[in-house]
Amino acid sequence: RIYSKTRPSCSHRTAFNNLTDPTQIRGFRTSRIFSREILIILLILSMPDLLDFTGKIVLVTGSSRGIGADTIKAFEQRGAKCVLNYVVDPEGKNKADAENVAQALSDPLIIECDVSNPTQVESMMMEIGDKRGGLDILVNNSGIIRDRTIKKMTLEEFESVVRVNLTGTFN
């Protein structure tokens, strides 16, 4: 520590921001706060890249389009091994969308799974374990909306939203 009998003429933060040479702090009395700031900065500088997911297995549910598709692509750009998930639909649009997203990824695993169905979720997790050796990161992104107020929703539509958005996250 560098000590001085005089009080600092500027704040700790200002002194730190202006610090380019240790000799510039003559006359500055360090404090525990100043020491903590330096320690925190040194820790941050020594940390590995927090956005490096190299080798991590990542599953983003509902990754066939929208936020899920963008999320899985972002993980891929940061080195992750990606698992795409979609739910089957009568028109086959979700599968086609998942395949389109997969084209932008290297070695993706595409799995059809309705996250509101515990049996299908368990099967999906087993497949990830068998083909990728396990899962490191899970992003529960699956969700559905019905473009109507609750008053106009049927009970079946409401239950479908709850099953996917709430129960699916639990499964």
Main sheet summary: 4 strands, parallel
Task: State the end-to-end distance.
Answer: 54 Å
**Strand residue percentage:** 5-15%
Which structural class do you get from the secondary structure elements?
Answer: alpha/beta
Dominant shape: globular
Strand order of the largest sheet: 3-2-1-4
Number of strands: 4
Average pLDDT confidence is 78
Summed up, the helix count is 6
Rg calculated over all Cα atoms: 26 Å
Give the quaternary arrangement of the chains: single chain
Which sequence of SSEs, written as H and E, runs from N to C?
HHEHEHEHEH
Give the low-pLDDT segments: 1-23
Structural write-up:
This protein is of the alpha/beta class and 171 residues long. Helices cover 44% and strands 10% of the residues. The chain is built from 6 helices and 4 strands. The protein has helices at 12-17, 32-46, 66-77, 93-103, 118-132, 155-170, and strands at residues 57-60, 81-86, 109-112, 137-139. Strands 3-2-1-4 form a 4-stranded parallel sheet, sandwiched between helices. The chain is globular, with a radius of gyration of 26 Å.
Protein traits:
about 170 residues; about 10% strand; alpha/beta
List the helices and strands and how they pair.
Layout: H1 12-17, H2 32-46, E1 57-60, H3 66-77, E2 81-86, H4 93-103, E3 109-112, H5 118-132, E4 137-139, H6 155-170
Parallel strand pairs: 1-2, 1-4, 2-3
